[in-house]
């Protein structure tokens, strides 16, 4: 069994992992930048190591510093969390080379699914439906223009090594294509160090549906149902639900079986999320995230499965503690991402949290690293907390969420709480009438 885990992350996900470790009786090591010296994950860990100055490249993305911290602290495993190095295959490989356990999949699976072109080809080979588009990378503008005409406008231009909505542009017409292509290429190069692009048919009004899977080294694979992550801002999720409103129990079972069979054939180990676009009652694979997801909590509250605990146990060489027949779904759950951003402009907000009051009561969970007086630095992702509510049905869940949002107090900085309150009172949200373009249509392009 793993005895000590270094958590190579920060914020709410570091605290979430730390708590799972404590439940398992595993010692923890926190890493932090100088900007995070007083952060909650540092305070709660058994040990902590400073790995560099505030810049992520010099701290949380500094592979030599993080592996050195694991070695000097006596950790025997590293959990990468999400973001930062969590989907860096070189990091996973180096962790294993240093005799440490990487709490995640094999490096070659991370590399395979991190390349969106390779991921799409792999999904098709494994029998999963994919969005029509280019067979591989599109290497120059002239070829891209010809292929776009063949696919048919509108066309989506995507970074092969990207994620989080970066390096992605939509060309509605041939006249828009060249500028959109060059913009995506430049952004991909800056964000990922890789300007390789590919093309897909742009689906007009899809929903974003994703399936949570867990697999062990013995060939056992289960899925924990799906999440609807359609309410997004510029391709970045801010509101997630489980289960979705669009899949029937029969469709869930059928597609879940196809996914688990594909993952079994891939010989994948660990947690993962397969993401799809859903339109006209069809699912189309778009990517696989080979790590824990921000929104794993809503899956936990409707299934009773501790996803992070299972992830750690699988990495330690254990079999899954449950089979597919053990997975039962209870009620409905919604998660709101509480970002430190202006709710009107989405400009990030740094500062000191004041008068912090966390909501509670039946069916309410908050995952955060916040406390009264903590500093929100300007160097990192703006996600500071996740509000998760669960109830017997979706109507009750929305009512409970509205109540919890009204209770939630975070002064001193701007947050998305006012926007989420608006969403709980919106008729289209209540009826489930939304897709990935909902926020833009409802509130304008600023969203």
Verbal overview:
There is one protein chain. The longest helix is centred in the middle third of the chain and has 19 residues, at 174-192. The protein folds into 3 domains: 4-103, 3-Layer(aba) Sandwich (Rossmann fold); 132-201, ATP-grasp fold, A domain (Dna Ligase, domain 1, 2-Layer Sandwich); 207-443, D-amino Acid Aminotransferase, Chain A, domain 1 (2-Layer Sandwich), CATH 3.30.470.20. The strands form 5 sheets. It has an 8-stranded antiparallel beta sheet. A 5-stranded parallel beta sheet has the order 3-2-1-4-5. It is globular and about 60 Å long. It starts with a strand and ends with a helix. 35% of the residues lie in helices and 26% in strands. The protein contains 15 helices and 20 strands. The protein has 447 residues and is an alpha+beta fold. The protein has helices at residues 11-24, 40-44, 63-73, 89-97, 107-114, 116-125, 141-151, 174-192, 249-266, 296-303, 307-315, 394-407, 417-424, 427-431, 438-443, and strands spanning 4-7, 27-33, 47-52, 77-79, 101-102, 155-159, 168-171, 197-201, 207-215, 221-233, 236-242, 270-279, 282-289, 332-339, 351-352, 354-357, 364-368, 375-376, 383-391, 409-411.
Number of domains: 3
Look up the CATH topology of the largest domain: D-amino Acid Aminotransferase, Chain A, domain 1
Give Rg in angstroms. 21 Å
Arrangement of strands in the largest sheet: 13-12-9-10-11-14-19-17
Q: Catalogue the unreliable spans.
A: none
End-to-end gap: 46 Å
Query: How would the global form be characterised?
Result: globular
Structural class: alpha+beta
Mean pLDDT score, rounded?
Answer: 95
- Summed up, the helix count is 15
**What's the number of extended β-strand segments?**
20
Identify the CATH architecture of the largest domain.
2-Layer Sandwich
């Amino acid at each position: 069994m793993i005895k000590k885990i270094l958590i190579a992350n920060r914020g709410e996900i570091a605290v979430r992992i730390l708590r799972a470790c404590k439940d398992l009786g595993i010692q923890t090591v926190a890493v932090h930048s100088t900007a995070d010296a007083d952060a909650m994950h540092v305070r709660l860990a058994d040990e902590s190591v400073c790995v560099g100055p505030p810049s992520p490249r010099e701290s949380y993305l500094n592979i030599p510093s993080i592996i050195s911290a694991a070695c000097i602290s006596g950790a025997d495993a590293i959990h990468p969390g999400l973001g930062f190095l969590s989907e860096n295959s070189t990091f996973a490989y180096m962790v294993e080379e240093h005799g440490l356990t990487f709490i995640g999949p094999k490096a070659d699976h991370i590399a395979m699914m991190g390349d969106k072109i390779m991921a799409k080809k792999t999904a098709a080979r494994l029998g999963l439906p994919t969005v029509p588009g280019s067979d591989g990378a599109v290497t120059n503008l002239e070829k891209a223009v010809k292929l776009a005409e063949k696919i048919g406008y509108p066309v989506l231009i995507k970074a092969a090594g990207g994620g989080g909505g970066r390096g992605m542009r939509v060309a509605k017409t041939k006249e828009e294509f060249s500028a959109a292509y060059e913009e995506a290429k430049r952004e991909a190069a800056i964000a990922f160090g890789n300007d390789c692009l590919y093309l897909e048919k742009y689906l007009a009004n899809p929903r974003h549906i994703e399936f949570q899977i867990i697999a062990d080294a013995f060939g056992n694979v289960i899925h924990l149902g799906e999440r609807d992550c359609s309410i997004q801002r510029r391709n970045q999720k801010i509101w997630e639900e489980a289960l979705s409103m669009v899949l029937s129990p029969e469709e869930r079972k059928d597609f879940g079986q196809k996914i688990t069979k594909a993952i079994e054939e891939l010989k994948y180990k660990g947690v993962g999320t397969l993401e799809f676009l859903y339109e006209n009652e069809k699912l189309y694979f778009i990517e696989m995230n080979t790590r824990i997801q921000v929104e794993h909590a809503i899956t936990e509250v409707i299934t009773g499965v501790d996803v992070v605990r299972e992830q750690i146990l699988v990495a330690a060489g254990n079999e899954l503690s449950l089979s597919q027949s053990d997975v039962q779904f209870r009620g409905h759950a919604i998660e709101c991402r509480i970002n430190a951003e202006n709710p009107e402009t989405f400009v990030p907000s740094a500062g000191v949290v004041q008068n912090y009051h966390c909501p509670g009561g039946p069916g309410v969970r908050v995952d955060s690293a916040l406390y009264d007086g903590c500093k929100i630095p300007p160097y990192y992702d703006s996600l500071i907390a996740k509000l998760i509510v669960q109830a017997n049905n979706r109507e009750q869940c929305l009512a409970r969420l509205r109540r919890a949002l009204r209770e939630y107090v975070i002064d001193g900085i701007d947050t998305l709480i006012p926007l989420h309150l608006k969403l709980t009172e919106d008729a289209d949200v209540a009826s489930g009438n939304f897709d990935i373009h909902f926020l833009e249509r409802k509130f304008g392009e600023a969203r």
